[in-house]
Fold this protein.
Amino acid sequence: MKIVGLTLFQKKNEPGISVAELNLLEGFGIEGDFHWGGEKQVTLLSAETRRWLDSQTEQGLCFKRFKENILIEDLEIKPCDRLIIGNAVLRISNLTKPCFDECPLVSPCRLSGRAVFAVVEKSGTVRIGDTLMRF
């Protein structure tokens, strides 16, 4: 598992900024990001799911609204996993991206259950190219 993209979202409903590194703060989330605290401090998504989303002609309700902070090649994690990324530690929360009843897609899409949220257990810096290790 390797980081292939990082995005900082300074304000809600505004485009994110692609960055080379993110500073993670224990118990809070990403320094400068509008998501602060709670169980959704950091959003992770597999690069495979992002490519699938970008290739779809029929758009689900969340396709344009959902944005990940950390894009990971070969992401394989489950709730409560702990990850070491760079010198930071993340814990995957039990929360995943739900599907909404008003979505025009008939069945749940690949975003549901594959977009995961994490909390920062140990502050540190993560960079594009860093590998993730589960423990």
User: Anything to note?
Assistant: The chain has a mean pLDDT of 87. The first strand starts at residue 2 and ends at 8.
